[in-house]
């Protein structure tokens, strides 16, 4: 398997008024091509910081981060990101939001339109493509954000608590949607979440982090088969993983 | 038994009536609650009608002498009289001064404000100076500008530029800064860079706010032009107010002030409407 993301000996210190805070300490993680990895831990464990370092939005204090053997130097369209609060461009319609990345790449209008329509259809928003974000519900806005991230076809998709702001039903719908999309066309995805079930259901591996300083406590390989569905949550293997993960998160 | 029951129910009705009375007021006055457009317009007009009634009462009722406050009818006839004897040219010269001065200020302030808002080093350089100038009232510069430039058009336009430029720069910079960081970050991960993010993301997002800033500062520019015309001018609305004062024509002063208010209201309404049409996504 090819390596997609390589994180080597990464640590991160934040300088604050009250002194330095060690957010991450000695992180080593390799994400393989077309692998789904979720990162989970208590708030303040540095999981979002790690994701932002991979995304190039923060720089590591020490260590190196590579994407397909290239040293990461700032953000780029090879690493698409989806944030918790959607961050759609409010002055653009759904369709133009989804087309945004393609337009930056210089894709021609016709191709752009076709690709955008494909992904809008994929997330089930066909009738809404000409609406502005403010006219959509939170769940719908996050679908657009997901479609926008996917349409740009990045090598890696980074999801920062993507469903954290949604209610439980919508969140489960979104998890099913993401599962479905990933099973149909696998993609390298790194997702940060605080939801244990979500982490296990979607991922090939779950990275469990501990806080102060943020360290990787354990990486759990999840073997629930390729075809996962909503009901997978109810199987005994799933619950076993959930038990192990929950214990690891809680233990000091 | 039945009697006491009846009494009881009456008591309850009374109680609920009391409750209802309270709830009518409460229903009308709910913080931040939206009111139907029709009712809003009626209330707005009502305020003007009340002012007009009060004005009529104190003048026709001879509570204040017409030396100090003219009657609505004499004000109106002064208006028609003035309009037929060249007041139009005063109105248009004042509008011309405001618009020219404000437009020049805007042409400079727009790029400068955007740069100050987007780039910290540029902000660090310009912001203290503009903040300082902002607190020096433009009207205080009038004597100096008359001394330097004279009392022609350029002096009035210069006053308006001086008054509006710092405000515009600082407020536009703030509008630019208000763009959510996550919007900028997400656009980086979609392929924008530090150069084009400014006009692909930051500017389009802040345009409605900038438009609003323009509307607000334009209102202030009106104040500066009138002061400039009161101090040294031979035409304009401010000048005609001063002329009226010198000849004790109180109704003409009223006309001048009212016209200023009406023009301001029209411009404000047009700009608000334009904002809603141009930036429908924001409303």
From TrEMBL, chain A:
Keyword Protein transport included in the entry's annotation: no
Keyword ATP-binding carried by entry: yes
Residues that span the membrane, as ranges: none
Domain ABC transporter: 5-238
Pfam short name (any one): ABC_tran
Swiss-Prot/TrEMBL keywords: ATP-binding, Nucleotide-binding, Transport
One term of GO molecular function: ATP hydrolysis activity
PROSITE patterns: ABC_TRANSPORTER_1, ABC_TRANSPORTER_2
Protein name per Swiss-Prot or TrEMBL: ABC transporter ATP-binding protein
TrEMBL record, chain B:
PROSITE patterns, sorted: ABC_TM1
Domain of life of the native organism: Bacteria
Organism taxonomic ancestry: Bacteria, Bacillati, Bacillota, Bacilli, Lactobacillales
Domain annotation ABC transmembrane type-1: ranges: 91-275
Similarity comment text for this entry: Belongs to the binding-protein-dependent transport system permease family.
Transmembrane feature ranges: 41-60, 95-120, 132-151, 157-176, 222-242, 254-274
Cellular compartments annotated: Cell membrane
Pfam families cross-referenced by the UniProt entry: BPD_transp_1 (PF00528)
Gene3D superfamilies reported for this sequence: MetI-like
Name of the protein in question: Binding-protein-dependent transport system inner membrane protein
Species this chain originates from: Liquorilactobacillus vini DSM 20605
A cellular component term, taken from the record's GO annotations: plasma membrane
A GO biological process held by the record: alkanesulfonate transmembrane transport
UniProt cross-references to PANTHER family, sorted A to Z: ABC TRANSPORTER PERMEASE PROTEIN MJ0413-RELATED, ALKANE SULFONATE ABC TRANSPORTER-RELATED, MEMBRANE SUBUNIT
Keywords: Cell membrane, Membrane, Transmembrane, Transmembrane helix, Transport
Coiled-coil intervals, chain numbering: none
Membrane topology: Multi-pass membrane protein
InterPro entries: MetI-like, MetI-like_sf
């Amino acid at each position: 398997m090819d390596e997609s993301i390589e994180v080597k000996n990464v640590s991160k210190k934040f300088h604050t008024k009250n002194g330095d805070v060690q957010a991450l300490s000695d992180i080593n993680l390799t994400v393989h091509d077309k692998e789904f990895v979720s990162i989970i831990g208590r708030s303040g464990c540095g999981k979002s910081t790690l994701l932002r370092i991979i995304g190039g939005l923060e720089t590591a204090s020490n260590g190196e981060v590579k994407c397909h053997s290239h040293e990461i130097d700032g953000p780029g369209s090879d690493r698409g990101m989806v944030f918790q609060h959607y961050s759609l461009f409010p002055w653009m319609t759904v369709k133009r939001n989804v087309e945004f990345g393609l337009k930056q790449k210089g894709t021609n209008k016709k191709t752009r339109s076709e690709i955008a329509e494909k992904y809008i259809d994929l997330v089930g928003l066909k009738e809404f493509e000409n609406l502005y974000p403010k006219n959509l519900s939170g769940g719908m806005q996050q679908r657009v954000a997901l479609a926008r991230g996917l349409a740009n076809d990045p090598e890696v998709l980074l999801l920062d608590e993507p469903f954290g702001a949604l209610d439980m039903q919508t969140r489960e719908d979104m998890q099913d949607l993401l599962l479905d999309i990933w099973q149909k066309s696998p993609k390298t995805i790194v997702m940060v979440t605080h939801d244990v079930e979500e982490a296990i259901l979607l991922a090939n591996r779950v990275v469990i982090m501990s806080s102060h300083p943020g360290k990787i406590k354990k990486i759990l390989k999840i073997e629930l088969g390729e075809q996962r569905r909503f009901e997978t949550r109810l199987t005994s293997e799933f619950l076993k993983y959930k038990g192990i993960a929950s214990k690891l998160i809680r233990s000091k | 038994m039945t009697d006491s029951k009846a009494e009881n129910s009456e008591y309850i009705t009374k109680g609920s009536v009391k409750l209802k009375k309270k709830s009518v007021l409460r229903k009308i006055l709910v913080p931040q609650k939206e009111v139907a457009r029709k009712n809003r317009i009626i209330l707005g007009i009502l305020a003007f009608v009340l002012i007009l009634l009060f004005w009529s009462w104190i003048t026709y009722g001879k509570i204040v002498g017409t030396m100090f406050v003219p009657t609505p009818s004499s004000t109106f006839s002064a208006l028609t009289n003035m309009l037929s004897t060249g007041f139009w040219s005063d109105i248009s010269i004042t509008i011309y001064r405001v618009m020219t001065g404000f437009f020049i200020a805007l042409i400079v302030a727009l790029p400068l404000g955007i740069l100050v808002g987007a780039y910290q080093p540029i902000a660090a350089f310009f912001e203290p100076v503009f903040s300082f100038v902002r607190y020096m009232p433009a009207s205080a510069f009038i004597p100096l500008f008359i001394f330097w430039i004279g009392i022609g058009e350029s002096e009035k336009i210069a006053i308006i530029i001086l008054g509006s430029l710092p405000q515009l720069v600082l407020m536009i910079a703030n509008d630019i800064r208000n763009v959510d960081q996550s919007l900028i970050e997400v656009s980086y991960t979609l392929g924008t860079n530090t150069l084009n993010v400014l006009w692909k993301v930051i500017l389009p997002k802040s345009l409605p706010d900038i438009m609003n800033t323009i509307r607000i500062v334009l209102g202030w520019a009106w104040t500066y032009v009138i002061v400039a015309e009161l101090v040294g001018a031979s035409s304009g609305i401010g000048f005609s107010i001063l002329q009226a004062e010198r000849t004790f024509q109180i109704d003409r002063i009223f006309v001048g002030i009212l016209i200023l208010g009406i023009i301001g209201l029209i411009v404000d309404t047009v700009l608000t409407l334009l904002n809603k049409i141009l930036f429908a996504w924001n409303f």
